[in-house]
Write a structure and sequence with these properties.
Blueprint: E1 4-10, H1 26-30, H2 38-54, E2 58-62, H3 70-75, H4 87-94, E3 105-108, E4 118-122, H5 129-132, H6 135-145, E5 152-155, E6 170-173, E7 182-187, H7 200-209, E8 217-221, H8 224-229, E9 238-241, E10 244-248, H9 255-265, E11 270-274, H10 281-287, E12 293-296, E13 302-307, H11 308-312, H12 314-325, E14 330-336, H13 339-343, E15 352-357, H14 370-383, H15 396-413
Parallel strand pairs: 1-2, 4-5, 7-8, 10-11, 13-14
Antiparallel strand pairs: 1-15, 3-4, 6-7, 9-10, 12-13
Length: 419
């Protein structure tokens, strides 16, 4: 069985809008109430998937979840037109936030688990109302994509009393993707102006469910400074791939202890630290330098897929140029345009869930080639709304067009089971 890393990107849904629902996510808050452009957003995401394919990587996708979520509205008794106090609750039922599949689940590849299967546990996302409603539909999709029980185990979310935000707070390091690795579960502690979304016990529960060797599961506290600065997930300040950890100096509460524990478990680890003197925490969060895809390319070198916003920031660009000149483990920097996602608080890393598996064991409807991307792009171009203004949220005519667009996508992709 040939195990490779597959990046599953979430397709931006037709209800993509800027409601500013995510407390602690500075980009989301700053664009709350702006017009959104769902068609452009989805096409940008598909272009990013094309870009990864062009690098010789295996690329997957997930369909947007059903929105507006009428069951969520009914459970809140919101059957009448909304007054001002209900606008945010109604907007939560329209959120297209499942596009950020880094929050869909936590994934442990087969080489790490006791039963030799790849395990996926859906994230409960309990901290934010617009996200907490996602996981049952996410599980349905995961169980369809990874239905081969000989190779995969898909778990329901851990109990909601323990906040779990999925792979955005989880990193894996290994000599190779197909070798046993070290899994890092990053958690936060309450305090400061913003909530710590990841509970330590959620990570420990996932590690047990996945059958991980306790000696190869590391639980790391995120720094309070990072959370207060707007690093609502660890993947805003750190990302790992195979033997390399790429991190901001202020990402962890105990950086020296964290690095020592990584090196003890994985002697070949290379840790690339960006000092605050070169790129401040605020600049790192504003540019989403670390919300990047750190990938092993076809020639074995590592590339960093970053948002164009990071490439355009002078301090970040200067540091990246210095890094490339140093001949370190990261050899290429690859900017991509995901501005519509960035404006709502998610960069390239937010848009993907990493799964190490044999592609032959995955439902082929969730794997992409250039022709299939073109097919999806055609549906988006024909059916996704061009623009959504804040006053449109809740309108019956828009709800109908959003449902019609998603139904057309599912028909084209052969995924009517998700209707």
């Amino acid at each position: 069985m040939a195990l490779v890393e597959i990046n599953f990107d979430g397709l931006v849904g037709p209800s993509h809008n800027y409601a500013g629902l995510s407390l602690g996510n500075l980009a989301s808050a700053s664009h709350g109430g702006d017009p959104s452009y769902p068609r452009a957003a989805a096409l940008q995401g598909l272009d990013k998937m094309r870009h990864n394919l062009s690098l010789g990587l295996v690329q997957g996708w997930f369909a947007p979840l059903p929105r507006p979520n009428q069951g969520f509205l009914d459970s809140l008794g919101l059957t009448q037109p909304a007054d001002s106090a209900e606008i945010r609750l109604r907007a939560a039922a329209w959120s297209a936030s499942s596009m950020w599949t880094a929050n869909a689940a936590t994934v442990s590849p087969a080489p790490d688990t006791a039963d030799g299967r790849c395990h996926l546990t859906a994230a409960n996302l309990v901290t934010m109302p617009h996200r907490s409603q996602e996981w049952p539909d996410t599980v349905r999709q995961l169980r369809l994509a990874f239905a081969d029980a000989a190779h995969f185990a898909v778990h329901d979310a851990v109990p909601a009393c323990f906040g779990d935000e999925g792979a955005a707070n989880h990193m894996r390091m290994a000599p190779r993707h197909d070798a046993p690795g070290l899994e890092l579960f990053v958690y936060g502690r309450p305090g400061g102006p913003f909530p710590a979304r990841q509970h330590e016990q959620a990570g420990r529960a996932v590690a047990r469910l996945h059958g991980l060797d306790p000696a190869r599961a590391l639980f790391v506290e995120q720094s309070a400074e990072a959370i207060a600065a707007g690093a609502f997930h660890n993947d805003v300040v750190a990302v790992a791939n195979e033997r390399v950890l790429f991190t901001h100096e202020q990402a962890f509460a105990d950086p020296d202890g964290t690095y020592a524990a990584i090196r003890a478990a994985l002697p070949e680890a290379e840790i690339v630290i960006v000092p605050a003197s070169a790129v401040s925490l605020a600049e790192a969060i504003r540019s989403y330098l670390f919300n990047a895809q750190l990938l092993t390319l076809g020639d074995g070198a590592m590339g960093l897929v970053i948002p164009t916003e990071a490439w355009e920031m002078p301090s970040v660009r200067g540091w990246l140029d210095t890094m490339l000149a140093s001949n370190g483990p990261i050899r290429r920097v690859l900017p991509v345009d995901v501005r519509q996602s960035m404006a709502n608080g998610g960069g390239p890393a937010c848009l993907r869930l990493r799964v190490v598996a044999d592609p032959a064991t995955v439902d082929p409807r969730f794997l992409l080639d250039a022709a299939r991307i073109d097919l999806l792009a055609g549906v988006v171009a024909q059916t996704w709304p061009e623009q959504i203004d804040p006053v449109d949220i809740g309108r019956a005519s828009l709800a109908e067009s959003v449902r019609t667009a998603r139904a057309a996508l599912l028909d084209t992709a052969g995924l009517r089971e998700l209707a």
